[in-house]
């Protein structure tokens, strides 16, 4: 059954990507959920013909919850499973679709949690710039924190996506980012990012790595080892660093620096970038453009996180601050400059 499942899964994912036009990232994500389903069925000694609605409800419900998946994360799992079984039915591999009425978990709206500036600083400072790995990691982190790209966009970068241009007599780095559904956008990088990237590109160890792609371009950020790939094949696209490796890197640095786990992941860097732009009164349309949001409501969320200016204004203008009451002396001690 494993062999049959694997072949059918591959067929479905190819159809999803090449016939339905879904992105490679979506195909990979759905493939991961179907890998979980394959393992779940194997452990229960079940075949695809044995699958029922109640079994799939258990897989996408109790089992997924016990595996640590939040209900929002279970929604694409349900989409992957329902799509797979619908495809199996239409292709004639099944006579009925057990996932036809599989319910989606209720979507929960949660405010994003940005990493605090001091914690982002701690993570970047974990990078040892005396080593090639440290220089690479610092360059990647500077793009995540300084440009707000998704981890997929970071890992998809090739060298041709970097443009060094002059503006008002100063060199700038412009990064062309490709994310979600192959959508592209240009992001001016901070000068700190430019310097980290220059240090990475100029490192002697990078020169010894074959990053060449068939179109003449080069993978930008490389992995340093992959035991699943033979040494003779470990070049070009095979050298591209994976999102999972970036996640692991940030988690490790965060653990070493004492950064809370809910801030030590790539998307917390994107939340920080967005929140800081809003804090400094960058126009919403520009923030939306820099983040690559199609929906303006996605950008508006960050206005709810931007509170520094509000705190300063409340401290300056609130009525209690203009009274002489019990707490006045204590408040003056709390708010006086350090």
What does this structure look like?
The chain is mainly alpha-helical and 338 residues long. It has two domains: 2-90; 117-304, Orthogonal Bundle (hpI Integrase, Chain A). Helices cover 52% and strands 7% of the residues. A three-stranded antiparallel β-sheet has the order 1-2-3. The longest helix has 20 residues, at 24-43. The termini are far apart. The mean pLDDT is 88.
In short, what is this structure?
This protein is mostly helical and about 350 residues long. The chain is built from 15 helices and 3 strands.
Count of structural domains:
2
Q: How would a crystallographer describe the biggest sheet?
A: 3 strands, antiparallel
Form type: globular
State the secondary-structure class: mainly alpha
């Amino acid at each position: 059954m494993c062999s049959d499942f694997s072949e059918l899964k591959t067929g479905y994912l190819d159809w999803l990507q090449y016939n339905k036009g879904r992105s490679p990232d979506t195909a990979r994500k759905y493939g991961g959920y179907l890998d979980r389903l394959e393992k779940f069925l194997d452990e229960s000694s079940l075949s695809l013909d044995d699958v029922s609605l109640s079994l799939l409800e258990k897989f996408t419900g109790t089992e997924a919850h016990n595996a640590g998946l939040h209900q929002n994360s279970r929604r694409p799992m349900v989409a992957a499973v329902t799509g797979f079984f619908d495809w199996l039915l239409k292709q004639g591999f099944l006579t009925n679709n057990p996932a036809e009425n599989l319910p989606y978990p209720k979507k929960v709206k949660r405010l994003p949690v940005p990493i605090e500036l001091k914690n982002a600083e701690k993570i970047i400072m974990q990078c040892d710039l005396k080593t090639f790995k440290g220089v690479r990691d610092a360059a990647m982190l500077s793009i995540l924190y300084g440009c707000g790209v998704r981890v997929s966009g970071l890992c998809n970068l090739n060298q041709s996506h970097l443009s060094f241009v002059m503006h008002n007599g100063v060199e700038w780095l412009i990064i062309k980012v490709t994310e979600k559904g192959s959508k592209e956008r240009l992001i001016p990088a901070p000068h700190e990012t430019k310097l980290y990237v220059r240090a990475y590109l100029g490192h002697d160890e990078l020169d010894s790595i074959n990053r060449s792609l068939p179109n003449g371009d080069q993978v930008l950020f490389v992995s340093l080892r992959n035991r699943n790939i033979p040494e003779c094949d470990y070049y070009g696209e095979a050298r591209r660093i994976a999102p999972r490796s970036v996640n692991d890197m940030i988690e490790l640095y965060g653990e070493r620096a004492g950064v809370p786990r809910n801030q030590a992941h790539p998307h917390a860097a994107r939340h920080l970038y967005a929140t800081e732009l809003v804090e400094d009164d960058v126009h919403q349309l520009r923030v939306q453009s820099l983040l690559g949001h199609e929906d303006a409501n996605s950008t508006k969320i960050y206005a709810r996180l931007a509170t520094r200016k509000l705190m300063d204004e409340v401290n300056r203008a609130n009525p209690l601050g203009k009274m002489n009451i019990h707490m006045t002396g204590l408040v003056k001690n709390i708010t006086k400059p350090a």
